[in-house]
Amino acid sequence: MVAPVAALRVVRCGGSSLHGARAVFSADSKYLLCASGDFVKMYSVATEETLRVMGGHADLVTGIQLNPRNHMQLYSSSLDGSIKLWDFMDGIPIKTFTVGSKLLALYALASFEDSVFVVIPKSDTFQLVSVKLTKAAGQDLEAKELSVVLDDVDASPKCIAFGREGEYVASVKEVNLQVYFFKQKQLNRFSVSAAKTKSGNNQFSCVACHPTEDCIATGHADGKIRLWRNFCHKKEYTFSTLHWHHDTVMDLAFSVEGTCLLSGGVESVLVLWRNESDCQKDFLPRLGSAIEYISMASDGALCCTLHSDNRITIINSNLRFAKSIQGLIKSANVKTGLVVDPRTKALVLNGEPGHLQFYCLQSDQQLFSLDIVQRQYIHQAGLNQADLVKVAFSAQGKWLATVEEREEVTDPELQLKLWFYDEETQSFKLNTRINMPHEDHITDMCFRDMDELEDDSLILVTTGRDCVFKVWVMVEDTDPEGNVSWSCDFVGSYHNYQATNCCFSEDGSLLAVSFEETVTVWDSVTWDLKCTFCHPPGKIRNICFGRLTCSKYLIGATDYGFLCCWNLLSCACKIRLKVCSSDPSTTKCILGFAVFVFKPNEPRPIYIQRNLCREKIQLAAFVPRDEPETVGSEKHLWLRRSQLFFLTDTQELMTLSTKSLQERLTPSSKQLAVEESLPVTPFSLLLGKHRRQQSQEDIGLGKIIVRNKREQDSPAVKELLHTPAHVLPSASFLCPVFIDSLLISKEKKSAEEVADEVEMESEKTEDDSDEERDITEMEQEDTSPVELLGEMTCKLSKSQEKELRKIRKMDYSWISAF
């Protein structure tokens, strides 16, 4: 066996939840920072691009807060028990404070210098404690000075809020409200009725504090919002009630001035309450999914909502939609598996109910979502609704096949849809809808991977529990427009066994269909049965053909965990191992929760990785790279043309990488372009115009001038342009050096002279007369003695050179008559 290679790392590359902690706007509202798994991401508000990915925590990030003393810095807390201070503009960690206990929430206030508040576990409950951040030198420090503020608090960050510049803190849990005043060191407790009545459930769900007044807003499980006042007295407190939400209020946030209150819940509607009145409210509906968090910018111009489907929505102050950042939507059950779009190299899988999401692996964002079912989804428990279960792409991505089904008590409702990619609209359009393509559930389908320029070569095969597989081909419609549709061309079966899987060979000449414990191989032209393979125990759950040099092998995996490799030439079983995903760009396969990478023609694995990650691996897929990657070891050559991705049970994407954490994050930290972040000024426009003109001149004059310009480059000019301004010497010293470097030496020819010489040489080559050859040879013979003596030849002007060329081209044959 091959020993695991330590240089290959299992890293989280995407799919992490964007709603694990409250998002934070930068002080100028140009950037949005949010927690994403064990990373902190910074997005551009204007372009929605990911500008920074800051990694360093060993576990999930649970809270982020701007440094109140320096708004260019950021605090982050994690379940790994550490607090990190970042320079988020450069993506550099400044300090790491080790607390030693799991940190579930983080709060930073300007009124508490060098201290932050965190929520830590304590026995069976949680505590809100103050952590003293030491100013000692060094990057890795210990923060052991903790002081308890409140006991028996909720672990959710929404259930604790600080009011009126940190004068008091409010905490809610179940039906209890605690308010602690720091200066008076006074703790007041309030409670609401715990009994569920017809009016609703009174349990607290979230809390927010007014920025300037003594007012606390609490959200409840029955959709009500209570505004508490006069809570400095235990018995004289008052509260008023606002009610619009029909279910739990998920989060609350006051505006910067405190004149408005924002609320959100499972209705996917953002509600703005004005002047704490039930009659003055505005709505922003159809935000897609339940609102988990609401964040306000410090200038009040923007707010953002974090949603349960991994979406971030940026909203203007006038309650108008501005931007949307969509991550990987976490579906309850990924029935389609991981499929790769051949056109965009995006991962395709279940998204919103009835939708297909196209997820970009490079940007960790959704490209677009395709509505397959095209029906309104009803959020009601126990209701059977149509859902997307199968998806397949043709070789070039021009055709898409989807299967949707709805579970019924008697017979299932099935639909097979064929979609064609429209280049004009850059989206898929429905071409054919087939009701009940099989009498029972469809188990698998695949396209024949051949040249799609010929419509006759494009074939779709579906397998079903009705013990048959069907071949679908394109036919021309009878309408005058000449459109095409799909119809059934052949139906095959084998001993009345259920058909479970299907796969075409690389050249499309063979079709393999598994029937329970038997694999059958068919000719894709005549549909004759060529051979069968039977290798119990267990039913076949996956089959795939080898690629490239291993195309003569057929691989199958059983539900008992065995993997078999058959040689199609000898019809013999070559290998028995243990669940596979085939790589279409190489000859590799992977299997199991531990990763074994091997070639089908070699029983010895070329790579082994055990204990892949803490989570359970659900699905895996090879994704081809746009360009082959340079690998440092021969053991990693299988990663050169494709990359292996895993989807865990928490729907986070993992991959194998040879790069360290710092190397992987460096390219993303360089994406913040200065030209995009700086305002457009007359000087920047002038500089850009000058650079464009200079590049065009260089291209027009050719390689000779480019070479001469490189020779004329001065070290003084380079030093002046690349040296930081604060370390440059005085201008009186730099000016003479700079001016001298721009002067052209008399011994060297100017660019115009070089261009003229190039033009003269091209004109000379066009003249093929014998007289000119003779004159040229005479000139070379005459000038050679002068060159040997080291004397300078007389230079002619451009007009004189042209006149001389005219004289050379004149016909002097009449002189021969004399």
Helix content: 10-25%
User: How widely separated are the two ends?
Assistant: 98 Å
List low-confidence stretches.
Answer: 1-6, 667-678, 701-712, 748-752, 766-793
Strand order of the largest sheet: 6-7-8-9-13
GO molecular function: RNA binding
Keywords: Nucleus, Repeat, Ribosome biogenesis, rRNA processing, Transcription, WD repeat
InterPro entries: Beta-prop_WDR75_2nd, WD40/YVTN_repeat-like_dom_sf, WD40_repeat_dom_sf, WD40_rpt, WDR75
Subcellular location: Nucleus, Nucleolus
Describe the structure in your own words.
With 818 residues, the chain is mostly beta strands. The strands form 15 sheets. A five-stranded mixed sheet has the order 6-7-8-9-13, with no helix packed on it. A four-stranded antiparallel sheet has the order 1-57-56-55, with no helix packed on it. It has a four-stranded antiparallel sheet with strand order 2-3-4-5. Strand 11 and strand 12 form a beta hairpin. The longest helix has 20 residues, at 682-701. It is globular.
SSE topology sketch:
Blueprint: E1 9-14, E2 24-25, E3 31-36, E4 39-44, E5 50-55, E6 61-67, E7 70-78, E8 82-87, E9 92-98, E10 105-108, E11 115-122, E12 125-132, E13 140-142, E14 146-153, E15 160-163, E16 168-173, E17 176-181, E18 186-191, E19 204-209, E20 215-220, E21 224-229, E22 238-243, E23 249-254, E24 260-265, E25 270-274, E26 281-284, E27 291-296, E28 302-307, E29 311-316, E30 321-326, E31 339-340, E32 347-350, E33 355-360, E34 365-371, E35 387-393, E36 399-406, E37 413-422, E38 427-435, E39 442-447, E40 459-464, E41 469-476, E42 484-492, E43 499-504, E44 510-515, E45 518-523, E46 529-534, E47 540-545, E48 553-558, E49 563-567, E50 572-577, E51 581-582, E52 589-590, E53 595-597, E54 607-609, E55 617-624, E56 642-648, E57 653-657, H1 661-669, H2 674-677, H3 682-701, H4 703-712, H5 715-722, H6 731-742, H7 751-766, H8 770-789, H9 798-809
Parallel strand pairs: 9-13
Antiparallel strand pairs: 1-57, 2-3, 3-4, 4-5, 6-7, 7-8, 8-9, 10-11, 11-12, 12-14, 15-16, 16-17, 17-18, 19-20, 20-21, 21-22, 23-24, 24-25, 25-26, 27-28, 28-29, 29-30, 31-32, 32-33, 33-34, 35-36, 36-37, 37-38, 39-40, 40-41, 41-42, 43-44, 44-45, 45-46, 47-48, 48-49, 49-50, 51-52, 53-54, 55-56, ...
Helix pairs in contact: 5-6
